[in-house]
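wait is this the right file?? whatever heres the structure
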């Protein structure tokens, strides 16, 4: 509106100026950020030069703009109620308020069974609330639903309510999902983070018990003030298929964990990383999924990186023994004993041979 006023004021006092001069004067008077672009000034300069005298839109033919709001409907209802000739009142109100005559007839006759503007929703507010609560419950149990899972859940719920024909294509659509989420702002779609079943089952008491045991081992071996002799090692796997999918979760969720089994994908590679409490990092140890260890896969990477292979790409007993003997013991042989090596409970970490070697080297 301000820019229209500026244009109107300027063009009302054109005195042998061209479009460039008018634009420059506008900038000088009102500043660069307020003034319209040169192309707009040039456009209106041509129109005023052709005899136009106003910036206001010309009257146009065609159907008037229709505005249907609750305030309009309520105001029209009052007018109609005050008019003894109701049909005349409705027609006049439709004309005055730019609302279709049939719409007013429907409202004044009491045939409108819903309050919100637009089409009614597939489920009632209560039914949608039950769906939303089901989604949150599944997330709490570590099973957040994906898009397709939620659409199937909605379909099954409709069937349970004897609303088998609720969706024309027999399945809720993605458009319906977007509409559902717009009405339930506490739900959002997030990329899920896969977590295996064993980790998902860990309880707070188990975590506390583990830390109590760790504290005891550190104190019993007088390592509390010798962090350079405490190491932690863990291996993780990388697949060519991450298994991540969008799931429905509460809006405040930072990480959408989804319990999954298996690794997925065709290619799998494990990497074992080990570091001390002081930050001393051992070179990584890479395990490929292959029958043979190809030279091409052993090129590059950090200095002294170890490489091996298994049929699955997972860490196996003999491979872990190889790492423990050739990389860990070699990298820590200069340290005072004992040395604490913290590992997870994977079966490949604990064999008779590995345990005997650890005892022999005071690990």
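ok assuming it is, sequence goes like this
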């Amino acid at each position: 509106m301000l820019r229209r006023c500026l244009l109107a004021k300027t063009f009302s006092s054109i005195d042998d100026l061209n479009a460039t001069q008018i634009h420059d004067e506008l900038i000088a008077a009102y500043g660069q950020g307020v003034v319209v672009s040169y192309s707009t000034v040039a456009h209106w300069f041509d129109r005023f030069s052709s005899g136009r005298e106003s910036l206001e839109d010309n009257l146009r033919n065609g159907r008037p703009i229709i505005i249907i709001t609750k305030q309009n409907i309520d105001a029209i209802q009052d007018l109609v109620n005050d008019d003894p000739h109701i049909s005349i009142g409705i027609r006049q109100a439709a004309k005055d308020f730019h609302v279709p005559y049939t719409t007013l007839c429907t409202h004044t006759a009491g045939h409108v069974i819903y309050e919100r503007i637009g089409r009614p929703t597939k489920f009632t507010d209560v039914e949608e609330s039950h769906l939303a609560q089901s989604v949150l419950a599944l997330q709490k149990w570590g099973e957040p639903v994906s898009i397709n899972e939620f659409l199937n859940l909605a379909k099954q719920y409709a069937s349970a309510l004897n609303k088998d024909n609720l969706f024309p294509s027999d399945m809720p659509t993605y458009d319906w999902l977007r509409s559902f989420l717009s009405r339930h702002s506490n739900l959002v779609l997030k990329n899920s983070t896969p977590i295996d079943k064993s980790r998902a089952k860990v309880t707070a008491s188990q975590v506390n018990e583990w830390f109590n045991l760790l504290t005891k081992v550190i104190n019993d071996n007088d390592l509390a003030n010798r962090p350079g002799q405490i190491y932690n090692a863990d291996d993780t796997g990388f697949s060519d298929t991450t298994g991540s999918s969008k799931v429905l979760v509460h809006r405040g969720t930072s990480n959408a964990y989804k319990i999954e089994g298996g690794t997925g994908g065709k290619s799998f590679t494990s990497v074992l990383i080990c570091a001390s409490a002081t930050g001393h990092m051992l070179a990584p140890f890479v395990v490929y999924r292959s029958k043979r260890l190809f030279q091409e896969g052993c090129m590059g990477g950090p200095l002294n990186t170890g490489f091996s292979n298994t049929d699955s790409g997972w860490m196996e007993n003999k491979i872990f023994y190889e790492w423990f003997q050739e990389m860990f013991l070699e990298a820590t042989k200069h340290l005072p004993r004992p040395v604490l090596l913290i590992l997870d409970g994977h079966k490949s970490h604990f064999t008779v041979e590995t345990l005997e070697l650890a005892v022999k080297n005071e690990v």
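Residues 125-185 form one domain. so i think its the right one actually
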